[in-house]
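The protein record filed here.
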Amino acid sequence: MAELTVASRRVGDVLVSEDLVELLGAEHIDAAVNQLRLNGGNCWACEGGIHHPDDVSLVVRVTAVGGKTGFIHMRCGPPQILDERRNRRAAIAMSKYLLERGTDAQAFAGVRSYPAPHSMLFVSLEAPVSATAENGERTSPWLDLLLGDGLQLLPPDVFDAQPQIVDGWTLRIAGSNVTCQTPRGALSEGLLEMPKPWLAALAAERSCVVVATGIAVDGDRLGPDLEPALNSLAANGLVV
């Protein structure tokens, strides 16, 4: 987490750092503050409700594929940029080919209604890594290595997948740090937002579906469009 609070200003009852003004622009900040005043919200730190006229700080969470604006109570922290891109590294030791290319990864947790196991971990590279096979076809060395480590291509019904337990794969949680370990090395490792239903499902079932994509996917940004987006990628052989 990078805390940037060199200088700050108030937008009504919201404290905003100059770094955020530079990153977002005044118009975006005004729109976010107005939305908060209209609909309220929840503190990203303590998860308690935020109501007018609570004193709050503006926060931006920056991930490998975008950013998301939110708020925390001023008592919970100052306005800041949470830069999570540096906290996620994907498969950096998996091959020389990948080591020489971008290895930042986006990871997020999700829960499906059925079938078990219900918890899912989604991991994708910040930028697609591809190569040209001898027959001229474009391939994904990253996904090929994961297939070699026991994962399987998914059909375009990703949320209905019923994969088998794969030997040598583990998921470890230490505080807010989550590591998904493959037989070859870490697939992803770093700070991860862990929804309570996801943790409850993990505790009950002791297993998790790991989904890797050849193109960056951001659950926060896609929202209800996540499932069709994953199914479209799966139809093109880009989901394991």
Q: What stands out?
A: The two ends are 30 Å apart (CA to CA). The first helix runs from residue 18 to 24.
